[in-house]
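Dear support,

I submitted the protein below through the web form. The confirmation email said the job was done, but the results page showed an empty box. After a refresh the structure appeared. I'm attaching both so you can tell me whether what I see now is the final result or a partial one.
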Amino acid sequence: MHKNFIIWRITDKILFRLILIEYHQMSISTKYFKNISEDCFNGVQQSIEISYQRISSFLDQIQLDVLHPPSSFQICKVSSKPLIQSQSNFSPNFLHPILTNQIIFEIKASLNFIISREVNNKEQTLRSETMLIQQKYDSLIEERQREQMEYLEQKDQVIQKFNNKNNLTQKQNREDQKGKKPLSFKLTNTYSYKQLQWCNAIALNKNSSLVVAASQNDIKGKLELLQICQNKNQVYTLNFMKNSNNFVSGFIDNSIIIWKENAENQWNFEQILNGHLGSILCLLLNNKDDLIISASQDKTIKFWIKQNQWKCSQTITDHTESVISISLNEQQNKLISSSLDYQILVIERSELDSNWNVRQKIKVDQKGLRLCFINDKLFTFQPSAQDQMHVYEIDRVTNQFRRTSEIAVKSGSNKCDSSFSQFYSKSKCLLLNKNGNFVNLMRMQKNGRFVVEQSIQFNDYHIFGQMTDDGELLVTWDAGSKEIQIRSFKEF
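What the results page shows now:
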C-alpha cells in the first residue's frame, strides 16, 4: 500500500518545492516513520536554503551585468549540476515529474517577479540619480548666472568709480589752475652775451650771483666777466658745489677737475680725478659736498668721496653703453641713470656699509638722454627727441618703479643733444625738460600730474643751460643764436 505525503515549505521570498514522498509498503512503526520524515524534511530544507542563496547571488550578478555590462563577453559552459542538491540519499525517482514541473513553474514566476521588482527599483534609483544630477546642473547654472550678474555689477561700480575719480581729477585740475597763476620765463636783454665759441656746459652758484660757462677751450665766470680758466680740453659738464663757490668740471680727456676759489675771487684747480676710460658726460654732487658721482662714456658710474683728498670708492658697471644722465632723490639714498643701452638703473645706497647697489633694471623702448627725480617715489624720463615724456612711480606692492603715465611735450626735431640735464625746482614745483629744439617748462599739480606752462623754441637742437635751484633764472646757450641768454621767472 502506498502512502503519499505532500510537505509544503514557504519562505519570505519564494514558494519552494513541493516534495512528494512516496514510501513503499513496509512494516515500520509510527516512531520510525516520524524520524525518517524529520530527517528527510531537514535535509530538503537545508538544500533549498543553500540553493536559494545561489539563486539570489545569480540574480544579483544579472542585475550588475544589466547596469554595468562588461566590455567583452566570455562563453562558459554551464554545469549540469542540479540547482538543489540533497545531502540525503534519495533516488532520482524521489521527485515526482508533475510536482517538478509545478515547482519549476512557480519558481519561474517568482524569479520573474523578483527580476521585475529589482529592475523597477533600479530604474527608480536611476531616475532619482538623474533628477539629482539635473538639480545640481540647474543649481550650477543659477550660480554661474549669479556670478555673472555680480561681475557685471562690480564692473559697473568700477566704471562709476573711475568716472567719479576722473571728474574729481578734472575738478582738482581746474582748482589747481585757479590757485596758480600762469608763468613764463622772459628774456632779459641786460644779461645776454654773445658767445661765438661752442659752449657745452653752464652752471650757476647757489645764490645766482655767478655763472660759469665752458667755451671751446675756456671756462668763463660771468654775470660780470671775472676770469678765463684756460684748458686745452673740451668741457662736457659743470657743477657748482652746494655750500661754496667751488665747482667741478668733467672733460673729454676722461678727467675730473675740482676748482677752488681763493681769497682774490679767482679759481685754481685743487685736484684732478683720474679713473674713467672715457669722456665725462655727467656729474652730480650731494648736499654735503662730500660725494661726487660721475657718469662716463666708458659705460661706468663712479662714486668719489672726500677724506683728505678725493678718491674713488666704488664703480657701477651694469650699463653696456655710454651713461648719459644721472639723478639723485631727495633723501640722497637713490640714484637713477640712463644709458644708450636702453636701460634705466635704480641704484640704492645700503644703510649697513654705505655701498651703492643696483636694485632695479628698467628696460625702455627708446634711448633716453635725460631723467630726473621729482621726489623719492617719482621720476621723469625723456626719450630722445620724442613728443612724450614718461613718468615713473614706485609700486607700493612690489616696491619697484613702473611707468604710469605720459606727458605730451614739444620736440620740433628728430635730433637732440644730451648735455642739458632735466632739473626740478621744488619751491616752484617746476620741471625743466630740454627736448629737440624746445625747452619745455612744466608745473606739477597737486594730483601729481604735469601741465606744460611754457615751451621755448630755439633755432637749433644744440642747446645747453641750467636753471637756478629757486627757479628764478634760466641760463642757456644755443648754436642758433650763439648767445648766452638769461631769462627770469614771471607769474601773471
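Response: this is the final, complete result; the empty box was a page-load delay. The helical segments are 30-67, 97-179.
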